[in-house]
Design a protein that fits this description.
This protein is α+β, with helices and mostly antiparallel strands. Helices cover about 30% and strands about 20% of the residues. The protein is built from twelve helices and 18 strands. Strands 7, 10, 11, 12, 13, 14, 15, 16, 17 and 18 form a ten-stranded mixed beta sheet that branches. Helix 3 crosses helix 4 and helix 4 runs antiparallel to helix 7. The longest helix has 21 residues. It starts with a helix and ends with a helix.
Length: about 475
């Protein structure tokens, strides 16, 4: 743990000029305010730094917009992308009128989820290990007007460029679904990913690995160690920040969109999770796949609430272009050990009880990690409290089941709209523990409908012209 005084010493010892205060908006994008170093003192870590929150997406109206950013001393790192010496610190938001944490701040919601686990007596530590995939592109263009709408992405690695005149075209371009994981020169991003990984380490993220991913066109993944719920979300936001800025340095661009390329694998964010108490793992036991009864009930909660849960863990219209059969996407709401065709996988982690965990494979990195982790935890805890039976495991390749067999396996919602409808009907598991508020759920649903679902409905899709123009 880092104390406020240690952060102030860091500012002095490193001749830090600017303090970059980062916080997250409702949809999940980092925002920031930069202040001169003399604006920060010990009170900033308790009372916060005042700011205007009137234009933050998903927050309250302009007449209730005075907010305060409370600095978390454990998140301080020197920003490697700023010209002047700048210390980055992640903040939570509180209401200055009441002094209470702001109930629409995602980081506050995540803390309430952790507090709920502790107060319930079920555990004292929750670990998450997200695996966020992404694409590195050389060029991206998109536009939508009254009379046109298009997108264009390109990558030097894209298989579609195998016949392009590149002066010279060297021909090393991963085939569709065969990017996992050839060595250079086919893998052209080795050095970029290494720089991304090492830069993350400088920012306090406990790094592990990096590699190319399945899709052509520059799909990649970096790995970092699992962490406690809030620190894992902090690390994931740092991960996204570093990757995008290192790519920009190389004249490239990164997207975490789940499905930016048609006809190849999309990008997910598989989430490993477990609960501990008094330093002991609670998901290890003598049941299926070495799990405890508690872990099986946790799985039961995730599976029961999955349709509603996906409105938060897969919160974009593009998310459901990834969740389709045939692309290694976890569309089937089942669990199994070592089986990546099930939405919940129990990794084959050996006999060490500390490694026993489950992996929920549906989420993607368009989600707000504080909200997504909190929502998954609430679903799992509801399963534990109500002893929800997850049913029998499905130890088969689900993609090879007959239509009759497959019809018996529940599947994920087919669209964001359907997931939001499920959330509207099923959200007591989020609100009854006091983690999410009714106000937040209502705001989330209306925001997603008004800014994403309904605007998509109003616009013709380019492929519709190919299908229907000659009607």
């Amino acid at each position: 743990m880092t104390t406020p005084q240690e952060v102030l010493n860091m500012i002095r010892d490193n001749n830090i000029q600017m303090i970059d205060l980062k916080f997250i908006d409702t949809p999940g994008i980092w925002q920031h305010l930069t202040v001169f170093h003399n604006q920060i003192d010990e009170s900033s870590f308790t009372d916060g730094v005042p700011f205007d929150g009137s234009s933050i997406r998903g927050w309250k109206a302009i007449n209730e917009s005075d907010m305060a950013m409370v600095l978390d001393p454990n998140t301080a790192w020197i920003d490697p992308f700023m010209k002047e010496p700048t210390l980055s610190i992640i903040c939570s938001i509180k209401e200055p009128r009441t002094g209470e944490p702001y109930n629409r701040c995602p980081r506050v919601i995540a803390q309430k989820a952790v507090d709920y686990v502790i107060s319930s007596g079920l555990g004292d530590t929750v670990y998450f290990g997200p695996e966020a995939e992404f694409f590195i592109f050389d060029d991206v263009r998109f536009d939508q007007t009254a009379s046109s709408g298009y997108y264009y992405v390109d990558s030097v690695e894209g298989r579609w460029n195998s016949g392009r005149e590149e002066g010279p075209n060297l021909g090393y371009k991963p085939r569709f679904k065969e990017g996992y994981f050839p060595v250079p020169p086919t893998d052209t991003f080795q050095d970029i990913r290494t720089e991304m990984l090492l830069t993350m380490a400088k920012c306090g993220v406990p790094i592990e690995k990096q590699h190319h991913e399945v899709a052509t066109g520059g799909q990649c993944e970096l790995g970092f160690r699992f962490g406690k719920l809030i620190e894992a979300a902090d690390w994931l936001m740092t991960y996204k920040y570093v990757i995008k800025n290192v790519a920009k340095k190389y004249g490239k661009t990164v997207t975490f969109m789940p499905k930016p390329i048609f006809g190849d694998n999309g990008s997910g964010m598989h989430c490993h999770q477990s609960i501990w108490k008094d330093g002991q793992p609670l998901f290890a036991g003598d049941k299926y796949a070495g799990l405890s009864e508690m872990a099986l009930h946790y799985i039961g909660g995730i599976l029961k609430h999955a349709p509603a849960l996906l409105a938060i863990t897969n919160p974009t219209t593009n998310s459901y272009k990834r969740l389709v059969p045939g692309y290694e996407a976890p569309v089937n709401l089942a669990y199994s050990q070592g089986n990546r065709s099930a939405s919940i996988r129990i990794p084959l982690s050996g006999t060490n009880p500390k490694a026993k965990r489950l992996e929920f494979r549906c989420p993607d990195a368009t989600s707000n990690p504080y909200l997504a982790f909190a929502a998954m935890l609430c679903a799992g805890l509801d399963g534990i409290k109500n002893k929800i039976d997850p049913g029998e495991p499905l130890d088969k390749n689900i993609y090879e089941l007959s239509p009759a067999e497959l019809a018996k396996v529940p599947s994920t919602p087919g669209s964001l709209e359907l997931a939001l409808e499920a959330l509207e009907k099923d959200h007591a598991f989020l609100t009854e523990p006091g983690v999410f508020t009714e106000d937040f759920i209502e705001t989330w649903i209306s925001y997603k409908l008004d800014t994403e679902v309904n605007p998509m409905r109003l616009r013709p899709h380019p492929y519709e012209f190919a299908l229907y123009y000659d009607c």
